[in-house]
Design goal:
Length: 362
């Protein structure tokens, strides 16, 4: 009889989000069985993973959905007991910084208390010595600390989201040190892709640029154009997540590119990819991005989109991840912007079908 080793089982919370989709692809390619912890919603939230749920005909189904919620202890207990995962990637979060000012309690419930529920469920079920955990920490932990930021930089969060994630970070470290849990915090800086949610600034920009390039008479309205972010590709970042859980010893790592670009610069690059130019005129809330030949306003500042408090300059130092994990981002800023704009252009300009009139030889 052929003895097949048991497949590794990974549980992903936040499986329907941007990172959950990229991580599932990576884990399936590595031969894992992937268990997705998914909220039940009134509409479908499976858009990014529908192709994994359906599976391809004739292939063993290795992507399994489980309904649950980070605010519901019983569902976490049930799914953990059923799946008995070797690795847990805790990606579930109310992840929008601006939204966290409007919904601080909901944000803390999922992003901070949700982690406590998960860690206690792991302990109660007896998985502490048997499973490894990735906690999705964030550069928002650093908040007001100036760049470059690394693992030793002081945490000074600037939003309810950042504060909730600081709590989650320390809960993870506490369970690691108190109970010997193999838990690693990935302190990831911003990462983007064509799968990015459309209320985050990069995707909001690339979608608007595509529509404008397609002829829409639209003005792209943005908040703080001066904010600097360290933007990586999500595909590169999920490789770092996986790598952390393959280490014998758990630890915390910054995942970043080491480059910072302003929102204004992202906008200019995105229009450039679509064959349009913007020239900046005016200052502060009067600033506009103008198409030089026509004088048409393409970009305007909307004061309503400014946040009560803001992380200004983000630039990560991922030296530790490079040294210990051998991790490095592969996608440049220019490649990232180009990939996102081209994907959104393809969505507004579906390929033209060749119509052959009857009777006319093709
Ligand atoms: P998304 O916002 O795209 O996805 C968030 C996921 O969490 C979704 O699947 C969402 O489900 C799920 N979720 C939200 N609330 C709950 C809940 N109460 N119970 C169960 N699931 C829930 O985030 P990303 O993929 O971009 O980010 C993944 C993680 O990494 C998040 O924790 C985020 O805070 C963190 N992070 C992200 C960075 C980035 O730049 N992308 C940078 C640093 C950290 P649904 O689809 O139903 O809404
Ligand atoms: P961020 O990402 O807050 O860094 O959090 P987001 O894309 O929302 O904002 C980046 C910067 O752009 C400025 N900005 C705008 N932002 C949005 N969303 N919409 C606008 O119209 C707009 N105009 C300007 C913001 O003020 C900000 O400075 C992301 C999330 O993925 C978090 O979950 C993650 O932890 C951090 O990145 C690292």
């Amino acid at each position: 009889m052929i003895h097949r080793p048991r497949r590794k089982r990974a549980l992903i919370t936040g499986a329907t989000g941007q990172d959950g989709a990229f991580l599932a692809e990576l884990l399936l390619a590595q031969g894992y069985a992937v268990h997705a912890f998914v909220r039940r919603t009134s509409g479908s939230n499976l858009g990014r993973v529908a192709h994994l749920v359906d599976g391809s005909p004739g292939r063993e189904r290795r992507y399994v959905l489980h309904h649950g919620d980070m605010t519901d202890t019983a569902s976490l207990m049930r799914v953990l007991a059923e799946v008995q995962p070797d690795e847990i990637y805790n990606l579930a979060a109310q992840s929008h910084v601006a939204v966290s000012f409007d919904a601080p309690e909901d944000t803390a419930n999922t992003d901070a208390l949700g982690v406590v529920r998960l860690l206690e469920a792991v302990r109660t079920i007896g998985l502490t010595d048997r499973c490894r955990i990735y906690q999705a920490s964030t550069s928002e932990l650093f908040g007001a600390s100036p760049p470059p930021q690394d693992e030793a930089t002081r945490f000074r969060p600037c939003s309810p989201y950042g504060a909730a994630k600081v709590c989650a970070y320390w809960m993870g470290v506490t369970y690691r040190e108190a109970y010997g849990l193999h838990l690693s915090n990935g302190i990831a800086f911003n990462h983007e892709s064509p799968l990015r949610g459309d209320s985050f600034v990069t995707r909001k920009i690339t979608r608007a640029v595509a529509r404008i390039a397609d002829g829409e008479r639209e003005v792209l309205r943005l908040g703080n154009l001066d904010a600097g972010r360290d933007w990586a590709h999500a595909r590169d970042v999920v490789a770092g997540m996986w790598s952390m859980l393959q280490q014998a010893v758990p630890d915390d790592y910054v995942l970043a590119t080491g480059e910072s670009h302003s929102v204004r610069s992202f906008v200019a690059h995105a229009f450039d990819v679509a064959g349009l130019t913007v020239r900046w005129e005016g200052e502060g809330v009067e600033e506009v991005g103008v198409e030089p030949r026509s004088g048409r306003v393409l970009v305007a500042v909307d004061p309503a989109l400014f946040r009560p408090r803001e992380t200004q300059g983000m630039r990560g130092d991922a030296g530790k991840a490079r040294r210990v994990l051998g991790w490095a981002p592969r996608t440049s800023f220019a490649e990232l912007v180009a990939e996102m704009v081209r994907a959104d252009l393809a969505a507004v300009r579906p390929p033209v079908e060749t119509v052959v009139s009857p009777g006319i030889p093709a």
